[in-house]
Amino acid sequence: xxxxxxxxxxxVGKELVQVLGDRGYPVTELRLFASTRSAxxxxxxxxxxxxxxxxxxxxPPKLDLALLAVSGEWSKAHAKELVAxxxxxxxxxxxxxxxxxxxxVVPEVNAAAAGGARLxxxxxxxxxxxxxALAPLHRExxxxxxxxxxxxxxxxxxxxxxxxxxxxxxxxxxxxGQAKNAVFRHPLPMNLIPHIDSFQPNxxxxxxxxxxxxxRKIMGLPDLLxxxxxxxxxxxxxxxxxxxxxxxxxxxxxxxxxVLARAPGVKLADDTANAVYPMPLTASGxxxxxxxxxxxxPVFGECGLDFFVCGDQLLKGAALNAVQIxxxxxxxxxx
Length: 335
Ligand SMILES: NC(=O)c1ccc[n+]([C@@H]2O[C@H](COP(=O)([O-])OP(=O)(O)OC[C@H]3O[C@@H](n4cnc5c(N)ncnc54)[C@H](OP(=O)(O)O)[C@@H]3O)[C@@H](O)[C@H]2O)c1
Known about the structure:
Family: Belongs to the aspartate-semialdehyde dehydrogenase family.
Active site: 125, 239
Strand content: 15-25%
Binding site for substrate: 152, 232
Bound molecules: NADP nicotinamide-adenine-dinucleotide phosphate
Helix content: 25-40%
GO molecular function: aspartate-semialdehyde dehydrogenase activity; NAD binding; NADP binding; protein dimerization activity
Structural class: alpha/beta
CATH architecture of the largest domain: 2-Layer Sandwich
CATH topology of the largest domain: Dihydrodipicolinate Reductase, domain 2
Subunit structure: Homodimer.
Number of helices: 9
């Protein structure tokens, strides 16, 4: 396969290159694209050293698979050009996620939705992590209501977000005072910020509404009642989520534990006696989403369950999910 990674120098792009190598994706040619800032940079990859190129819309490269990790605007401008030039495109941005004719795919949940599509959307990172745990619980117990509170790492805002947290922490620890902020709306060190993406007329942020809209589409449950509060926290990597569900049928912690223990893409981390539960430090760098702290929720009685999940949003929430989509496609090399 001739594969192009667009945004290859970014937080998601770097992981895409690594995941292609780690999973043994059949890459015969790898091309890396980024902005003019990185043009000409030589990057080591599992497929040998590569030079970063700048995409030229006047002559799109001949690719079988294009993995996009730039921005929504960039994808809107160029994804369809790449499709027209023969590539199947998997897009990490939010540009096409809610379009009716573009499948939004988490392979453990709705792999078949990708069908023969040539443009496929990768979900929002928080949503993908949530969906791998919600889908098996829905199949077994039926979902009625979902309430989620998130704890999202700085790398959710890309390489610059991670850098701002690292620089800010160093500055505050060395000199005291308050860290500078440019990527985040407020300083993130020693803080948390209940504001990710823009506020909507209904009082939710766009990040929170993405969890609602995209979970409904991925799970094929257009009327699912779901409310999210999304919070940026001063961790580097992996998003955590506290989840409360009300189910159609009675659910016990033991039954939920059994379902999640055999769910693809989920790793049970639920041994409170030994202080084992999902955490960013243990979920980072892992393909599976950790699920734990499973307990009955007394508000919803025998149909209520609380649990905690944590997943590496650069992997399951982005790069890994995109490569899994590519693996599930009946891709053929273009002429
Ligand atoms: N971070 C996450 O957790 C996450 C999760 C799911 C989805 N996503 C989505 O994935 C995409 C990438 O996010 P990220 O976090 O990886 O961002 P990032 O770290 O800021 O990386 C952005 C990448 O895009 C390149 N780029 C920027 N402007 C460009 C332009 N005008 N033309 C060509 N390339 C350009 C950058 O190249 P230079 O290095 O040369 O500037 C860099 O390689 C976004 O759509 C984001 O919403 C992110």
